[in-house]
Amino acid sequence: MKVLVLGATGGTGRLIVRDAVAKGHSVVALVRSVASAALPDAGIIEGDVRNEATIARAMDGCDAVVSALGTGMGRRKVDLLTVATRSMITAMTRNGVRRLVCVSALGAGDSRGHGGFVFDRLFLPLLLSEAYKDKERQEAAIRASLLDWVLVRPAMLTDDPARGNARAITDLARVKGGKIARADVAQFVVDQLTTDTYLRRTPVLMW
Fold it and tell me: pLDDT digits over 77-89, tens only?
């Protein structure tokens, strides 16, 4: 399978590229700067992820798209995910690419209030409120699309080695925060390229 990865230079994105290649997929990464990409296993295309024509060019011949785009902390308004996702959906629809796996986060959408006391009461309102508004607009656009999507919501990310025992949770009744390694998230994301287990669902990942 040929896969376009957006956000491939981020901490999780790099691991997604590595795992996808290890599992036999061909990877194309759309990056802001070729000079700083350092992704030896992927084909690199330089461009703006917010531009529909650029995304369409990058996904030429691809069978699926993975979005690992993210925004930083802070109180300033951001719309990278909103704009890039709308452009991505339009480009995928026009080019007949249906499979989309998108990395969101625990605390977005209907998982709000399940991040644990410190996250829900302090980090989210003080440091992540604008970023999460952007994530929620991203999720809403994906849900409204006709694509074959999976929205993956990791708990708090760590740089620990993969444990291989990640839990994918869709019933959030007892979820109150948690952790998960980026490496485990990457493996789960790549697995969703070839299975329909969580098609049009929003699994939360944690140990």
Answer: 999 999 999 999 9
